[in-house]
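Bench notes, afternoon.
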Amino acid sequence: MRRALAAVASAVLAAGVLAACAPASEGPRIVVTTNILGDVVETLVGEQVEVATLMQPNADPHSFEISARQAADMEAADLVVANGLGLEEGLLQHVETAADAGVPITLAGDVVEVLEYATEDASGPDPHWWTDPTQMVAVVDALEDAIAEHVDGIDADALADAADDYRGELEALDADLETRFDAIGADRRVLVTNHHVFGYLAERYDFRIVGAVIPGGSTLAAPSASDLDDLAAAIEEAGVPVIFAESSQPDRLIQVLAEEVGVDVRVESLFTESLTEPDGGAGTYLELMQANADRIEAALAP
């Protein structure tokens, strides 16, 4: 009897293991690395296609990791969508493995007008293109083409309509941001954040980036005491009224800069590299951009 029960238990366990390793869906599936891109893909395909977004709300795209099951899902997807430009530092090998397995890959970094970091403490291509909504238009164009080509059974007309509607929303967002930011005096359009994330916004809307608490373009770096001293001097020279901390990152270093290095400025939070839960203030890309515009305007307007 015990042997029979053990055999049944083993069979149940084996079935569970097989189920855990099996694809989550038999229908078409798009796997997306970041939740910002995941929101855009979901907007374009609606209920037609299952979209699996790997990055959880409020996560850091530079450091988040995925499970073996999620990696397998990437290799079985009809399409993988990623940011590229070195943003998803922990996922590069998985994207490459999926590509080697024959999965079509759409990299946003391949279709945007890439900017180089424009500060002394960072070099190379800046992966944070979405802070300029006009860059997102090019990404939507590429996604529309890739989905139509690689995802079987997609309604091309519905996809085209959704893409047209979303491009209209992006153009309206850009016009709104341009009007609001133009109303901020040029001498006050200065930005300091905990790491370099607003280069594209600065280029589009004529802001000046004074610096960042964390050197380089990744949250995985760490500032030295001399880095903080140099940034404190630059902030005082530029008369920066506020430092923007990213909502998904602890603001300990920014508080150190503001309190211990002798810089008397406010610290305000922005949504930068990750969406929140739906009720968290930045549940979609459009909400993220509007929320940041509200906070930047309130912090910098005279």
